[in-house]
Amino acid sequence: MSTFHSTMNRRDFMKIIGLAGAGCGAAAVAGQPFSDLDELTASPQGLVKKPWYVKETDNPTVEIDWAMMKRYDWNELYTVYAKNRPANVAKAKEWAAANKPGYSLRDRSLHSATGFAGQVWGTTMSFVPRTRANIPNFWPSIVYGLMTPEQLGVPRWQGTPEENLKMLRSAARFWGAKDLTAVPLDSRTKNLVNGIDRDKKPVIFEDVELGYETTAKRVVPNRMKHLVTWSTLQSTDMIKRAPDAICASTIAMGYDHGILLCNRLQHFITGLGYEALSPANYNYLALCGPTSILSGQAEAARMGFPTLDPELGPMVRRWMLITDLPIAETKPIDAGMFRFCRTCAICAENCPGSAINLGEPTWDVLGNFNHAGSKSYPFLPQNCRDFWMENTGIDCSVCLASCPFSTKDKADIHHLIKFTIANSDTFNSFFKGMSKSFKLDRLEREKENSWWDLPNQPVFGFDTTRTTSLE
Amino acid sequence: MWFVIGIIASAILISSIWWLNMKNITPRWYEWLIGGIGFVLFFYAIQNTLGFLREIEPTAAGFTAAFFGIPALILVAVAFRLVFERRKNV
């Protein structure tokens, strides 16, 4: 019988204990709240952090020629839309009867119910604060009725621009915005304010103290300081089901939240003693996409109206209002996304209406429905809307679903790819190929697995922990 | 979950080092490097595969399992092979 026993000297024993301790320490650190570099470098002011590989720049990644830019007339777009065919009702009935995934009775009802709420809330929007619009409060009490500083007998709110930005961000985040930023309202950026608003009312700048509205015009005081812009969220799982009613439901939800935020932010700023001029309907009044690009929330994209958020890609809705509250301005960003669009073009390849430009960025526009003044990708909105009508009246969003930036963040490789894209264009073709090979842009997902059966769907359909260090 | 994976990874690493010590095997620096890269790639493959499955992207999950997992296994096997070939020759 062997009497051999393996022995270990004290030195080896202590070495192993040390290694085991280091291993336990490493395992413990893995469970710490600091799950990435972003959290370690988060500003103690609580400002919304951007991913660490996103750079701030002095100029946006899309070239702008302010001399070319004119204030937009929304009716140029809606005149074009008016020429579109009507919604294909016969197909809607056929698909509902056939229970086509994404177009069944319950899918359409989900979309209709979500969008209907937005239409109702949209009627509560007011260009000027409601206190001046003489709209009575439902609760005539100190609790919900707005009491201005004058009524309370206190001076209006005084804070530094940085404090005001943090304050507005905190409020906006509480009410459902992902981020809030501001650009100065100057002789250049006034070109981002609509010349003619969606309801055919001209928007005029005058030397007055307060904004006002008549039957003939909306007036913005020249003394207004900032365009404030924010984004609302949408569900990735639902967007990926484009172009069906499930996708359109989360688009409508983004609008619903944006409308509520317009009302709330306007009310809040008014309560502080400042002026806040809101879109009178949905997110018109000014061009939100360019405002978000100039203020560092996003970069321009190939796909027309949407812009690219570094974390969420095009899966956000954008909103704005005009105010005289002093707010710290934020710089544009460069995460390599607009440059990636040049190589990628998956949205254009997949667009069922052939509305998205497949070429190179250009200063040219295709009509007055485009907004001149940037070297980007002119878009054919009539083709886009035509497909919506053929799609039984349901908004499309195949471009949003196809974009390689429209992903969740559970797989770590997304961060490695985004870091690489932010720093080099060398691998852009490879990453486009990966996106296609991985079938990240595949359609008809409702047939694969129904959204109605997905387990553990988050509240409102989106994972808000993606954009916060709070767990 | 990652706390548990960290414990398991640490246990594998420590056991390997203890076993090498017990057998009186001293890997060379490049053998450590090849094995270490393979070890890291293996867990990167697991993270991305599970991550894409959570994202409901099964094709992406399969691709990353193969793209990172196969090289990981190859590298670890190469490291072990190098060590044992050298030991056999000695």
Could you name the ranges of chain B where pLDDT drops below 50 across 5 or more consecutive residues? none
Strand order of the largest sheet of chain A: 2-6-8-7
Sequence of secondary-structure elements of chain B: HHH
Overall 3D geometry of chain B?
elongated
What is the average per-residue confidence, as pLDDT of chain A, rounded to a whole number? Answer: 88
Average of per-residue pLDDT values of chain B: 90
Number of H- or I-type helical stretches of chain B: 3
From the helix content, strand content and strand pairing of chain A, which structural class follows?
alpha+beta
The largest interface is: A-B, 27 and 29 residues
Helix content of chain A: 25-40%
Note the beta-strand portion of chain B. under 5%
Sheet-strand content of chain A, in percent, reads 5-15%
Radius of gyration of chain B: 15 Å
User: How many individual β-strands of chain B?
Assistant: 0
Which stretches of chain A of 5+ consecutive residues score pLDDT under 50?
37-46
Strand count, sense and barrel status of the largest sheet of chain B are: none
Largest sheet of chain A: 4 strands, antiparallel
Name the assembly state: heterodimer
Total of DSSP H or I helical runs spanning 4+ residues of chain A: 17
- In which range does the helix fraction of chain B lie? over 70%
